[in-house]
Amino acid sequence: MLKDMMPHVELFQPTDVDNALALMGRFGSDGWALAGGHDSLAWFKDRGKRPSALIDLAGISELLGIRETSDGIEIGAMTTLTEIELHPMIREKFALLADAARHVASPQIRNSGTLGGNVCQDTRCWYYRLGVGCYRAGGNTCYADTPEAMNREHCLFGADRCVAVTPSDTAPALVALDATMVIRNGQGEREVKAEDFFMRPGIDITRMTVLNPADLLTTIRIPNTWAGAHFYFEKVADRNTWDFALVSVAAAMKVSGDRIQDARIACGGVECVPKRLTGVEKLLKGALLNDETADAAGAAATRGAKPLNYNHFKIPLMENLVKRAVRSA
Amino acid sequence: MTDVRPAGVDLPGAAVHPRPHADDPFDAALLMLEGRRNVSRREFIKGVIASGVAVSGATYFGAACTGLAPAPLGGGVERLISLNVNGQVRRVDVLPGETLAMTLRYKLGLTGTKLGCDRGECGACTVLIDDVAQYSCSTLTHRVRGQEITTVEGLETPSGELHPVQQAFIDELGPQCGFCTPGQVMSAVALLKANPDPTREEARAAMAGNLCRCGAYDHYLNGIMRAAREA
Ligand SMILES: Cc1cc2nc3c(=O)[nH]c(=O)nc-3n(C[C@H](O)[C@H](O)[C@H](O)COP(=O)(O)OP(=O)(O)OC[C@H]3O[C@@H](n4cnc5c(N)ncnc54)[C@H](O)[C@@H]3O)c2cc1C
Ligand code: SF4
Ligand code: FES
Ligand code: FES
């Protein structure tokens, strides 16, 4: 719906990371790093978030591109999802990520939406997006977790006051590939495993990632550990374009003969963070590749799920996606 | 949520007061700048432009303009920029948070680009930026300085001949109500630039970011296949 223009905001277009960090330090929580803008601009148009300064990252060449390193690849945070989807090296070694990127939103969004923005994006809980003062917005109630609430999109696991889910399609793939996020701020650089990058509501309910307001995600590194493994990505959404995952699965498996040597699997759309299925991984390690193993994996995947009023359907959905992932090996 | 409108500034064209007055955002900027030592005239003008309080007499924004709040000074983008649209360089005054769809439609008069949702969910606003299909409702205009923007108005030849995609859409009865058509045309043009001979499935995937409420998808696909054949 066309309301009107965005409220006034100052726009900065630094051309290197140091200047961007200086601006982020200067504006603190009033500043906003702008990547592709597909999450950001909607917030501003709806007056849901009102930063006073946008720090546009598009002019920073250090944040662009895909490079081979001695032990894997590194991807600049501002690399577009289309580039990732089409890049020959990613398709050859880490097709899981290319596949996940291809399932995001729509072609036009992927043409300017970035990998960094995709993993940093805020949750799509539609109560929160309407601008209600729920827990995540600093209030003291959750509108999605009431007997009448429309919560078919919400979580099965890890609820802690907030029952929202991670919206990102690339995040589960990065967790399955054991990626590392490189974060910089005015004080220096640190690395965080993809698995630990996403924030659980029990720890900080107002953030989706470990990033502080002055932090910039600069690079995503993927080690060669899973290069060329057998991959499976599947996303189920109401429509194939635009819609966020109800449940998605990203699996990396090493298979030799009729046995699964090793596996790393994560699901999207079922928890506030990409849910790594360590129980399933243990069960699969060394298991025979057959239907029994697939069934056991599916059952193990959903153990402990706590559905809300309208999202019971996610349990068989998740179970089946995990089964299919194993069967595909 | 309350929409805080800045006091003192209404619409573009608001008068500049003869004497600085601290209550007026424009004058507050002036006074702040005058308070600093060694502020050159050029810096002053730059500061005013960057602060977003300078008034522009030539916008078509009308009621859409809530954007003129006093802003922190210093270092932001300059508002007066050149845009390369349909092969012409055009000077235009662009607010820092302005989207390309707004600039095209309400400042450059290029209303062929439609706004359906203004949220990246329909594709009506699709334009080409350096030959790549993008949603202009979700792109800041300041981002595309120095890039080539093509809208549906820029497709026909100088002698008025339609682009093959436009012609094929007519021949295949593509549009029904026609509201989504400019966006469909631009996505199809982008596809054929990157892949002149697509399969129907490839075309379907490339057009997936354009919604058609009339459901004329197959007609558009027929049009694309025809344009590819005839090109
Ligand atoms: C209609 C629609 C449908 C969508 N469907 C899907 C979908 O199906 N699957 C999916 O995964 N996504 C989907 N998205 C989300 C979209 O893909 C993401 O919003 C987009 O990828 C976010 O990336 P961006 O580059 O546009 O980032 P922005 O919107 O610019 O940024 C998103 C957030 O990340 C922060 N940020 C960005 N980059 C950095 C950085 N380098 N360092 C620190 N912080 C940073 C920003 O400050 C902001 O808070 C959809 C979006 C829309 C509008
Ligand atoms: S699920 Fe989370 S984001 Fe949604 S209303 Fe509840 S607290 Fe807010
Ligand atoms: S108006 Fe831009 S996608 Fe709908
Ligand atoms: S022709 Fe009516 S919306 Fe497509």
Summarize the structure.
The complex is a heterodimer of chains A (329) and B (231). Chain A is α+β, with helices and mostly antiparallel strands and 329 residues long. Chain A contains 13 helices and twelve strands.
Can you give a write-up of this model?
- Chain A has 329 residues and is α+β, with helices and mostly antiparallel strands.
- Among the domains of chain A are: 63-121 and 169-225, Uridine Diphospho-n-acetylenolpyruvylglucosamine Reductase, domain 3, CATH 3.30.465; 231-327, Enolase-like, domain 1 (2-Layer Sandwich), CATH 3.30.390.
- Helix content of chain A is 29%, strand content 21%.
- In chain A, strand 4 and strand 5 (72-76) form a beta hairpin.
- The longest helix of chain A has 14 residues, at 314-327.
- The relative contact order of chain A is 0.13.
- The model of chain A has no long low-confidence stretch (mean pLDDT 97).
- Chain B has 231 residues and is an alpha+beta fold.
- Chain B has three domains: 25-66; 80-154, Roll (Ubiquitin-like (UB roll)), CATH 3.10.20; 164-230, [2Fe-2S]-binding domain (DNA polymerase, domain 1, Orthogonal Bundle).
- In chain B, 32% of the residues lie in helices and 10% in strands.
- Chain B contains seven helices and five strands.
- Chain B has helices at residues 25-35, 41-51, 100-107, 164-171, 181-194, 200-206, 217-230; strands at 80-85, 88-93, 126-129, 132-135, 148-150.
- In chain B, strands 2-1-5-3-4 form a five-stranded mixed sheet, with helices on both faces.
- In chain B, a hairpin with a 2-residue loop joins strand 1 and strand 2.
- In chain B, helix 1 (25-35) runs antiparallel to helix 2.
- The N and C termini of chain B lie far apart (52 Å).
- Classes of the chains: A alpha+beta (329), B alpha+beta (231).
- The A-B interface holds A 1-13, 23, 34, 36-38, 41-42, 44-48, 52-54, 56, 58, 105-109, 111-112, 131, 240-242 and B 1, 3-4, 6, 50-52, 61, 63-69, 71-72, 75-77, 95-99, 102, 115, 117-121, 123, 126, 132-135, 138-140, 142-143, 187, 205-206, 208-209.
- Bound molecules: flavin-adenine dinucleotide, iron/sulfur cluster and FE2/S2 (inorganic) cluster (2 copies).
